[in-house]
Amino acid sequence: MRLSLSLPQLRGFTLPAFAVRPVLSVEALAPWLCMFFVAACNGGFWRGALAGRDAFSPHTWLFVASVATGLCALHLACLLPLLNRWTARPLLTVLLLATGMASYFMQRDPVYFGTSMVRDVFRTDVKEAWGLLPHLLFYAGLPLSLAWGTAARPQSHDKLFHTVLGMLDIRTGVYDRGDDLTADCRK
C-alpha cells in the first residue's frame, strides 16, 4: 500500500496556533527582556532591598512595583538607542549570555560585578562550567528563545510625521488625527 499526498489535499491545511511564530517589533521585545533582567537577574539586589520589610504589607508591594518600574525604565533608556532591526538579536545574545554568567557568579559568591569577575568568567574550568550550564539554560536560554523565536517586524514610521505635527500643534491639510499616535494624550 502506497500513501501519497498531493498539493490539492493540503490546501485547506493550516498550522495549529502553537506552531505559528509570534511577531514582535524590537520596541515590543525590549521591555519583555528588561522585565526579565529586573525580575530574574537581580536576586542579590532584591534580597538587599527587601531585607527587613514585611512581605504582606501593601507598602512593600508598592515599593517593589516602583523600583521595578524605575529599573525597567533605566534598562530601556540604555538599551533602546542601541537596538534596531539588524542589531537587536546579536546584541541581546551577547548581553543575555554575559548577564547569565554574571548572575551565576553573583549568586554563588556574594560579590559585585567588576573587572576581576569578568576575568573569572573567562577562566572558568570544566567543573565550574557544568554548574554554569543549567544556570545559563534558564538565565540565557529562555530569554534567547524569546529573542530568536519571534519574527522581527519592522516598525513602520508612517505615523511619525502625523505624530510630530500633532505634538508641535501644527495644523495643516495633510495632518490626520487618526494617524497621530499621541492624539488621545492631548486635549
Secondary-structure topology with pairs:
Layout: H1 7-10, E1 23-24, H2 26-40, H3 43-49, H4 58-79, H5 88-108, H6 115-122, H7 126-149, E2 151-152, H8 160-167
Parallel strand pairs: 1-2
Helix pairs in contact: 2-4, 2-7, 5-7
Q: Would you kindly provide a brief summary of this structure?
A:
The chain is an all-alpha fold and 187 residues long.
Give an overview of the whole structure.
It is a single chain. It contains eight helices and two strands, in the order αβααααααβα. The model is unreliable at 1-9 (pLDDT under 50). The radius of gyration is 23 Å and the shape is globular. 58% of the residues lie in helices and 2% in strands. It has helices spanning 7-10, 26-40, 43-49, 58-79, 88-108, 115-122, 126-149, 160-167, and strands spanning 23-24, 151-152. The protein is mainly α. It has a two-stranded parallel ribbon.
Strand order of the largest sheet: 1-2
Contiguous runs where pLDDT drops below 50 for at least 5 residues: 1-9
> What is the typical, i.e. mean, pLDDT?
78
Secondary structure tally, helices = 8
What would the principal axes of the Cα set say about the shape? globular
Helical/strand content category: mainly alpha
Into how many domains do the coordinates divide?
Answer: 2
Q: How many beta-strand elements?
A: 2
Determine the fraction of residues in helical runs and give it as a percent range.
Answer: 55-70%
